[in-house]
Amino acid sequence: MAAATLAGMSAADASLVDLPYPEVMRAQANARSDHVAVTLSGSQLTFGELEVRATNLAHHLLSLGVEPADYVTIAEPNSFEWFTAFLACWKLGATPQPVSSRLPPLELAAIVDLADSPVVIGMEHATRPWLPRGFIAPPAPAGWSPPAVPPSPAWKAPTSGGSTGRPKLIVSGDPAIWTSSLVGLARVIGARADGTTVMPGPLYHNGPLIWSWLTLLSGGNVALLPRFDAESTLAAIQENTAESIYLVPTMMQRMWKLPNDTKYAYDLSSLRVAFHLAEPCPKWLKEAWIDWIGADVLFELYGGTEAQCFTVLDGNEWLAHPGSVGKPLMGELKIMDEDGNDLPNGETGSVWMRNTARETPSYIYIGDEAEEQDGWECLGDMGWMDDDGYLYLADRRKDMILVGGANVFPAEIEAAIGAHPKVRSSAVIGLPDKDKGNRIHAIVDAVDLDSPELTEFLAERLVTYKIPRTYEFVKEPLRDDAGKVRRTALVAERSA
Hints:
Blueprint: H1 11-16, E1 19-20, H2 21-31, E2 36-40, E3 43-46, H3 47-63, E4 71-74, H4 80-91, E5 95-98, H5 105-115, E6 120-121, E7 130-131, E8 159-160, E9 168-172, E10 177-178, H6 180-188, E11 196-199, H7 206-217, E12 221-224, H8 230-240, E13 244-247, H9 249-256, H10 260-263, E14 273-276, H11 283-293, E15 298-303, E16 310-314, H12 315-320, E17 327-330, E18 332-336, E19 349-354, E20 363-366, E21 371-373, E22 376-385, E23 391-396, E24 401-403, E25 406-408, H13 410-418, E26 423-433, E27 437-446, H14 451-459, E28 470-474, H15 487-495
Parallel strand pairs: 2-12, 4-5, 4-6, 6-7, 11-12, 11-13, 13-14, 14-15, 27-28
Antiparallel strand pairs: 1-10, 2-3, 8-9, 9-20, 15-16, 16-17, 18-19, 19-22, 21-22, 22-23, 24-25, 26-27
Helix pairs in contact: 2-3, 3-4, 8-9
């Protein structure tokens, strides 16, 4: 992709390359002190204000014992304080370790123990120093500046695995240094100085975290939503004349299913780059969005927080390879069977990847071990590749349902259910069945919909054995704002 190249890097970009993140943000504050860095619910935080707040918090964290290379757990919701906490950690050479602000106490305790965090920001902790949600540090002494320390050895350490009951940290293999590769990645996602990125996703997740900081480090503005709302997201694009946006298919579906007179009332013509990622996107939804905002604007990315490899494609490529998530922009992919044998193009197996662009690991786990074989790693996804090297995903391996000897992928069924105009979201799981081994059970968030109507709708889209045998209709979203669903918990609740 041409956007991935660095040809024509501006003098401002070049002057910041290879500087630690705190120095880049200080330079942005000096260059555009009064320019808006983050907008939220009608309020604004400028680059200058962010720099001052982060310096004050760094002074306070230092007094609480934070040292270089420490992990600092950050449990703030989408807020100015979330950005402040990240930048304050980097100023001390520490690693920000973000978590959901709604974690139950036991899960928070398990993560804090893994990280051995000296301080928890945004949530109470029983045995460690903690700062309340929305805490604003008192001013540092006049003339105080953070100590001279090496850059944070890992610029982030988000979590994963909470749905299994065994949370882990995914610690970045990259220090907090602004490299030419990151400048290139910022260009890919549409971030630029004084441009605006709309962020409706939860910042503790890896995608929103990366999109937001690439925007700020580039000197751009993040138009942040406190949490996702379909119409508010469209309004944010129009009000901020936004050039880029981060999405997941769950958001796309809720936005698309707004009444036509609502969704078409907003001007989205300023958008140049709209990326979606984090979960499979149904074909019908992809086509709808291409028709809505244009094939040149809609992009898709597939990859893990582990960053061994990622694929990218735009809407035009997708139309030529419907259903694909793209070709590797970084790293390598291959498909293998259960015995570790390479599979030919067109056959479905486990997706394995490796990073070929670096000599050091792109991440480390704390609390888990990678599934590795001869330098290749698997994140648990299944898929296949075509003869042109494009990857197509089937589903998560652990989510696959074995029904009477046939492999059934929940993502395919959820895509068909989601096409019904009354459906807001769904989650398909397998429940024990004496005859077939498992029966397909669909939990559906819908309005005025019943089993016969949905079964008739699905009969035109799915082979008989893939149609759910039982349904459960609910009135609340089944996926979070990052598009994630905890199937393990759903199965356990219903199996009990």
